[in-house]
Amino acid sequence: MNQQVALKRYLVRYEGRVQGVGFRFNAVRQSTGLSVNGFVFNQPDGSVLMDVEGNALDVKHLLTRIEAEMRGNIEAVQIDEQPLVGNTGGFKIQY
Q: Where are the beta strands (DSSP E) in the chain?
């Protein structure tokens, strides 16, 4: 049986004490072994924005891993589904 993989893309904004605490490095580390592409970067307002696209289950796993690892720093999370753009090249920090 041929099963099509559902792809999803989300823009995720993390608010709280999320800059200067290794948040972006942790997000990239948590993506290891997952079929996701995109980037994570600091925003001028002190939040961190993540643009992630990939296998829907892997994207969900990434969000769960980040929340579990960084829950003490996160005060709010905003998740907005976006149209797919075909990101490739893995998941990394954007400066």
A: 7-16, 36-42, 48-55, 74-81, 91-93
Residue of 9, 24, 37, 73 marked catalytic: 24
Q: Catalytic residue at 29?
A: no
pLDDT over 90 at 93, yes or no: yes
- Delineate the domains of the chain, giving CATH numbers in brackets: 7-84 (3.30.70.100)
> Does residue 24 have an active-site annotation?
yes
- Cut 0.70: pTM above it: yes
Instruction: Please pick, among 17, 26, 42, 65, the residue that the annotation labels catalytic.
Output: 42
